[in-house]
Amino acid sequence: MSGxxxxxxxxxxxxxxxxxxxxxxxxxxxxxxxxxxxxxxxKVEVTGAIRRxxxxxxxxxxxxxxxxxxxxxxxxxxxxxxxxxxxPNTVHRYRQEVRLYIGPALGKVPLDKLRPDQISAFYQDxxxxxxxxxxxxxxxxLRRALTVAVRWQLVGWxxxxxxxxxxxxxxxxxPYSEEETRQLLAAVAGSRFExxxxxxxxxxxxxxxxxxxxxxxxxxxxxxxxxxxALQYQPGNGLQLVPPKTARSRRTVPLxxxxxxxLRLLQVRQAESRVKAGEFWEDWGLVFSTEVGxxxxxxxxxxxxxLIVERVGLRRIRLHDxxxxxxxxxxxxxxxxxVVMEVLGHSQISITLNTYTHVSAGLSREAADxxxxxxxxxxxxxxxxxxxxxxxxxxxxxxxxxxxxxx
Length: 407
Fold this sequence. Notes:
Layout lengths: L10 E4 L5 E10 L2 E9 L2 H16 L11 H12 L6 H19 L9 H11 L5 H20 L26 H11 L5 H10 L3 H5 L6 E2 L4 E4 L2 E5 L3 E5 L8 E4 L2 H21 L20 H15 L8 H12 L4 H8 L4 H7 L1 H19 L4 H11 L3 H13 L1
Antiparallel strand pairs: 1-2, 2-3, 4-5, 5-8, 6-7
């Protein structure tokens, strides 16, 4: 067998443990000879990696210096890149995920040595500790961070793209039924924040959107509310008004008259609170505020909801399920999915349709019944055939008469 290597293979040899190792010579840099090493389970795998590295070096896309470790790069990504594209709360969550999960397992691996099989093994190990949804979030963070590393030419490719995250079983939403919703609204009728729960149930606004709603964005004459900000608690910064979740979340929501009336009453009561608070009033301009004008903390809002549910004896659901309740009831009343999508501020109609599949069966049955009314019943030929099939034959009639006579 010839020991000559094929073009582009670089130096490839087998190790004592049966794996293969290859090296690409990157020339001199900073007075030192630089090489890049690759290790794999098979010679074919290493040969392919060597050829990719050689091509990247030829095109000037491969840096001769050492690649940073994943942990070092993630810290840089979270400091320099992520804050410009995601909210502070998301960056905070990213840091927690790196500290608790990614860092201990993969943080010391250099970017250019991170392999798909390592990432896949990491996912499988994490599935024994956290949910599939949490692992998918780790996957999304790694994919984004490594995509930037490729653009910055810190590494030749993104190995995360070669790994599939664990599948996520569809979460069946559990909204309130029409009767349960009536009980909830009856329980809050006339209360100080009746309008808050009416907005949640009838308009499907998110908690942050409701608590961040400003009076200047409410038109009580036209009966609309403009969503342009949300209230969010940020660790270290307290309560902050931030842009809506997505671009489509910026929207104008139509308000039923009962919600408009509740908002008018709230406006009067808030004016009374302003006078009573005097110099202690902090004017945030928000629809829902404390007795001194400051925002309602989302934690307190959630606590109030649970107290109402407990008092009425309703089943416990997540506060976000009020948004699902609004969507489900709208769809059940025949409101087109496209309209529901606009009211909720979904970015795609597929989100609306996929989330509320539990409503589709009833809507499908209703659609079939409406087609029946529109186009009429069965044709005369089909009707005659069905009648003939149902009618007893002459022999059956004769037999029945004979038995009747015998009795």
